[in-house]
């Protein structure tokens, strides 16, 4: 059983939903499927933004936001590995990027960018939920600070491990790109990237050269307007996405967020009792994962025995790899399942 940070456990009924007969991506049946997914994502996340779908990991759209929204200069806020990746994307695409580096384990706050969003900054980007550290920053507060300094600056948010697990308050965030993928809290196999896109970003894209083909949001929108994909999409995965969205809407998004809250709280209490607590600072802790301080625990030996019992979790990541390990709490997992996992972990530790 996967209790990893991604890819995550995919339920048998969800796997079954992806076994429908294949259809072509230029058929009426496909258009109905595409439109259904867009409508349900908007409903689940309470947004009227454009919803774009492409085959690939979420990194495709993280890069797409930069390629469509920045001619020359942007600002990158980072407090972990995946914030650093966004900055690397800027640099590899020839953009000038001002960096704001926040200590790992700490949340990004409005004061970190005070006075830094000048008129030459075309966009500011950050990771809502940094999965290398388990820190969930207040993206609404950061977004407001960006706009207060420079109302013209676009705002790009990597929500890969946040969307559908925690209430991002999309309307209040007022971002121009919110990016995520299928293999995290949507509890599906990897293979599809999703972007919530603003009209502002589409207007800016008209002024930006070298948007590429695969990442050209104007090309994607033209096809999306008639419920088609720009390039061949993973149709079977889309069947699963449509099915999962139905499950989420039936559960109710607030109930879903409460379930994640309960799972995270269970892990945090256990870590305080059995280990050296959790890594991220209090008040800014992810609810889609628990990043635990490993202390003197030999993680590799521990994990080998845990996997022999049928459970798999995730090692630490990036600069804190040797200090931490991670438990994924995403998708269709339950508090009861988390308690069973922790009981197994405790048993292995006692050995």
Structural class: alpha/beta
Helix share of residues? 40-55%
Which consecutive residue ranges, at least 5 long each, have pLDDT under 50? Answer: none
Strand count, sense and closure of the main sheet?
7 strands, mixed
Strand order of the largest sheet: 1-9-8-7-4-2-3
Gross morphology: globular
* Nearest-integer average pLDDT: 98
The helix tally amounts to: 12
Q: What pattern of helices and strands is seen along the backbone?
A: HHEHEHEEEEHEHEEHHHHEHEEH
Count of distinct strands = 12
From the N-terminal CA to the C-terminal CA, the straight-line distance is 21 Å
Q: Kindly estimate the percentage of residues that lie in beta strands according to DSSP.
A: 15-25%
Rg (CA only): 20 Å
For this entry, give a set of tags.
351 residues; three-stranded antiparallel sheet; 12 helices; 40% helix
Produce a short descriptive summary.
This protein has 12 helices and 12 strands.
Structure description:
The protein is α/β, with parallel strands linked by helices. The chain has 12 helices and 12 strands. The protein has a 7-stranded mixed β-sheet with strand order 1-9-8-7-4-2-3, with helices on both faces. A hairpin with a 4-residue loop joins strand 5 and strand 6 (135-136). The longest helix has 22 residues, at 253-274. It is globular, with a radius of gyration of 20 Å. The mean pLDDT is 98.
